[in-house]
Write a structure and sequence with these properties.
The complex is a heterodimer. By secondary structure, chain A is mostly helical. Chain A is built from 16 helices and no strands. The radius of gyration of chain A is 19 Å and the shape is globular. The relative contact order of chain A is 0.20. About 5% of the residues of chain A have low confidence. A seven-stranded antiparallel beta sheet of chain B has the order 1-2-3-7-6-5-4. The N and C termini of chain B lie far apart (about 75 Å). The mean pLDDT of chain B is about 90. Classes of the chains: A mainly alpha, B alpha+beta. Chains A and B meet through helix 4 and helix 16 of A and helix 2, strand 1, strand 2, strand 3 and strand 7 of B.
Amino acid sequence: MSQAIYQIVDKLPEKNLTTRMLGALDSIVPGEWKNIVGFENTIKLVTGAKDQARIQKIGERAIALYNDKTQGYQTGLWLYQTVDSVQGLGGMASFLNKIGSSVGFLSFLQSITPSPETTQAVDFGVKLVTEIVAFCKINGIPGDGIGDFVESLADCRHEALMRMAALICVDGVLPLGPHFMDKALSMLDSSGVSGLAQNKAFGKISSMIPGGSTEKQLGYIKEGVTGVQGWMKSFVDTKQLTTESVTEKLRGVVSNVGSKADWIAAAVDVSTNYFEHTGTQTVARSLISRAAAEV
Amino acid sequence: MTVVKRISFSATLIGLLLVSAGCRQEPSRWEAAQKATEGKKTSVSQDAVDGSIFNQFFPPQGDGYDIVFKQEKSGFAQAALEQNGKEIAVFSVFDTASDPDAKTKFAESTEQVDGYPVVIEEKSLSALVGDRYQVQVRSTDPAFGKSMRAEWLTKFNLKRIAEIEN
């Protein structure tokens, strides 16, 4: 049995490298993300409930809904957690998170190297479809859901918008440049089925990606990337995101790594879990918002 | 056992009891709910109406307001009311077949909207429609006050919701 949802939300860190990174990206989506931690606190902030008896009822209903696997919240959270757990050097990352500082990054860096661009492109595609599938599971969208997801982007808010901003900056612009969408699509083409099959993140979540075969799943990923292309390109243009501007924002978070974008991307990749962190907050928000309507 | 040994033994025992009491973690207020539902796929009744049926009875959008559907599950549908891209309220319809306890609060209801009993709870206004469906308007922005909750509740097609049969 997986961990109880109230424990997972209670254990969300108030401050670590992930929250510092998200804080550094806050100016891109100002006011959207608040680091809401704690189960009771989330109930209060999402529903406005103050009465303890009502908070108890909402919490209990949320727990029942989460525990019921057919409701999709567990799968959604599993996807966010799993796609983020692929990063190496987890022990070191967790240590750095605990001390909440970038002390030790120099020695830490000796053991990491940026991944080749092709891997980064596949990683980006896999993370994007993870978001699409989790979105469908959490909100109850049947089918592959790409159309619904793309449509929902216009109303994307809170931690979900912050996650998309981080995906664009950290997994898109930083490793692949501002034209990362075109690059990702052409690299997904060139790396093909074998490139996808070898991707660690894909290996872990492939059972949840629609398609039935790696070839069709690659098609789904490309369809997903193509689907969000318009929104993401406009996001990059409107926010004037460049490799330099993103590097500048993140330099303070991972100091001592110099100013090379791909090194910062690699350091951020191994030392943060923004998908899991904000994904937990997204699941908690949907779950609690529903529970408040069902008590 | 000598008196000294007895005293020392008792002191150790008391000490151990104190230490263990200090270490004991208070049970979480959520633990009972967790134990009762862990691994159970019973949060939604098999009789619950499909959530997609509710969508057509939500208030229509227009006049600067957008209705953005958020969740659609068995026995449940939820939408956000947005104005100028900002969420100001959350609307929902819930089939209480999945949680009959939700109906009990309406027994003490003294107010009605369009003939249906309503209950005000903090920032939300809920109506029990057809003695089965809970239609709720919850504010998420302070500008969306009590009178707006009542106004928007009447914009649902409550009559048609009451007529939904399983």
